[in-house]
Amino acid sequence: MEIIRKYFPELDPLKIEKLEQLKPLYEDWNSKINVISRKDMDNFYTHHVLHSLSIAKIINFVPGTHIMDVGTGGGFPGIPLAILFPECHFTLVDSIEKKIRVVSEVKGALELNNVTPLRDRAEKVPGKFDFIVSRAVTALPVFMEWTGNKIKSGGKNKLYNGVLYLKGGEFNEELRSISYNYKIFNLTDFFTEDFFETKKAAHIFPKKES
User: Fold this and answer.
1) Class of domain 2-209
2) What does pTM read for this prediction?
3) 32 φ, ψ to 5°?
4) E strands of the chain, at which residues?
């Protein structure tokens, strides 16, 4: 948790308490259902929590924002973001039953009333969202086919409504092959740890809103 306090010193005690509960909760569930590799579990707060919260360095979601986390796995980036933004609503989507079970249990343990776990495929989820977040679940052209029609028009945040996609390495070619505007953020602009050296976030949004 020291690394979270380092980069988010303004967090109130309730948010700190919930973030502190994450590791023991995931350690317990990981012993029953393998959702996080052992290597990553040893670096849980850097590789999962802080990586998820990098989105909060790019945007401060205003209250009432609706966000869908696609391919959430055990709940990342959705769960840490839901803790940070309790006045926003997060729909956490995964097609694998056991992963959504973990999300549901973590939601209950932390009393995250702003989280809706959903076992489904992204393209079948009803409704539209202000933002769609994800951690590199597939190639970007495929991801945008799944989610492009799930983005609400307009927007009330400082960034245009769209996708916030976390990924490592180079993906400029993927971005050039999609018919959307985009901006890339290097996570080394926010964090100094070696883990973030190749990590990036892309804000992808419809061209008609540019």
Assistant:
1) alpha beta
2) 0.95
3) -105, -45
4) 66-70, 89-94, 115-119, 131-135, 162-168, 180-186, 199-206
